[in-house]
Amino acid sequence: MSTEIIENVDLKKLRGGYYTPQAITDFICKWAITKPTQKVLEPSCGDGNFIESAIRRFKELGVPNNKLFGLIKGIELIEDEADKSKDRAAKYGLNSTTILNTDFFNYIANANGEAYFDVVIGNPPFIRYQNFPEEHREVAFRIMEEMNLHPNKLTNIWVPFLVISASKLNRFGKLAMVIPAELFQVKYAAETRIFLSNFFSRITIVTFKKLVFDDIQQEVVLMLCEKDVTANKGIRVIELNNLAELNSIKVDKIQQAQAKTLDHTSEKWTKYFLDENEIELLRKIKADKRIKPCADVMDVDVGIVTGRNEFFMLNKEAIAKWKLKTYTTKVVSKSNHFKGIVYNKTDFEQNVEANYPVQLFLPANKDYSELSEICRKYIAYGEAMEFQMGYKCKIRKRWYITPSLWSPDAFVLRQVGDYPKLILNKTGASSTDTIHRVRFKKKIYPETIALSYLNSLTFAFSEILGRSYGGGVLTFEPTEIEEIPLPLLGTHKIDFKKIDSLIRQRKIEEVLDIIDQELLVKQLKFSETEVKMLRGIWKKLSGRRNGRKN
Q1: How many domains would you assign to the chain?
Q2: Within a domain: residue 115?
């Protein structure tokens, strides 16, 4: 089954074009299938990669073709794909009852409690809520609700495949699936993380430093889950470089890997990439009442949505061409518009000279007929290009007026590559939705907040609270920024201009050395060892995601 992200659905696309590599299907079957009598389910078998690997695994265990009947059940919604699976099963003498051309959720709903298995394997569909046919979605969500789970419109369809499959395991059952790494990170999967923690005694997560599916940026992990074990309970992560290493890894190595205590909360699982001492330090900090979240001192909101940046966002040349100088306002739209931890008049002017689009078209909020000839001419050009037909523009009273153009106290990047950034706004500019806007809530010097943000503790938690989907970029929603712990400097002698200069020179390690020593060691009394550990956490997690850049 595909891990393709599907935006425009038809039933053919529900099975995508990215099939699970044989190295993965063979490995999963070798780990999961250990006895010749186990009953195996593949709930979304696609063209049969897992089915064939399961058959070969049973044959390795000495099961002849005539004894394979009844051991494997494959389910596939799309008829053409189901036929491919049937053909592959038929090569080993299995008849058509091995593969069912039906919807998995309806199969479970109509099984009358009889569909239980020793092993579940597969790569469930990765399809957004709105792109999954309603008739199948309704059944899936009803079953989840019967399990006391609460799916919503953010729920990706791999979630019900995972949890419902798990619920159909026997007492000593094992589940092994290819799952998007967003399981670790996204809020809509928080309940799923709790469910898995409670349902399974031992969870092993195999990750890869490199992306393992060709042509897609989606990071995946192998989830190896066991229901009822007595030893080495918990979660452990085994990180491999690539698929080639998967071929050589021994199942015994997995069983020997150190497990970490399961945390039955909704906190993200990114921390399981860390060792026990690192996890314990983070939990200690979370419980430290001296350290408040960013929400204690700031409100974070999205930037403006123009509806058509190529029309609204103007560079120096476009302003001159259309004579729009008096009909613009300052707006930043990209991270490279910022150089330091303050965005000032000089920065803005340099961006203008660099021909960056840092000014937004802003005519008077009047009917077209009341506007100046210059504005009417530019708006007419936009309408000739049909910019007014875009969704955001179309729903406005006047499509050419961008709403919510308030100027924030500071900016914080929605997406970062190297480290999280908070930049004071000294220009009166607003920002597009690629950059979040910040309002400070308390009477604290803005410079103090900007300096306080640059510490190893905040950087470490940023890596855990943000989301990385592949390609090295760390993404934050406003609420995720607000959750990040932010220890605040008290009285200090740190030179703001020096720090700003070092940031402009990209000397972030030197900046962290200065602020960590003053804030974390001197003021909050963290040990040098703890600060070093926090720095290491940030580097480990940021290095991991940046290592997946193509």
Answers
A1: 3
A2: yes
Please give the model's pTM, rounded to 2 decimal places.
0.77
- CA–CA separation, 347 vs 335, rounded Å? 13
Residue 378, φ and ψ in degrees, nearest 5? -70, -40
Containing domain of residue 324, as a range? 301-440
User: In the chain, what's the furthest Cα-to-Cα distance?
Assistant: 85
3 belongs to a structural domain: no
d(CA 129, CA 158) in angstroms, rounded, equals: 10
Nearest to 512 by CA among 490, 537, 491, 480: 537
- 494 and 541 co-located in one domain: yes
Q: Say whether both 77 and 200 belong to one domain.
A: yes
What gap in Å lies between CA 413 and CA 481, rounded to an integer?
10
DSSP SS3 for 268: coil
Q: Report the DSSP beta bridge partners of residue 342.
A: 424
Residues 236 and 331 in one domain: no
State the Cα–Cα distance between residues 259 and 276, nearest whole angstrom: 9
Enter the tokens of residue 442.
Answer: 């308390």
> Is-contact 12 133, C-beta < 8 A?
no
- State whether 81 and 65 are in the same domain: yes
Three-state DSSP at 360 gives strand
pLDDT at 2: 39
Is residue 142 exposed (0-12), middle (13-18) or buried (19+ Cβ within 10 Å)? Answer: middle
My answer on whether 207 and 220 are in the same domain is yes
Cα distance between residue 377 and residue 368, in whole Å: 10
Q: Within this chain, do residues 225 and 319 fall inside the same structural domain, yes or no?
A: no
Report residues of the chain scoring pLDDT below 50. 1-17, 550
Going by C-alpha positions, the residue among 387, 377, 519 that lies closest to residue 448 is: 519
Q: What is the CATH number of the domain that holds 150?
A: 3.40.50.150
8 Å CB contact between 75 and 107? yes
pLDDT tens, 76-124?
A: 999 999 999 999 888 888 876 789 999 999 999 988 767 799 999 999 9
One DSSP character per residue, 215-236 reads T----EEEEEEESS-SSS-EEE
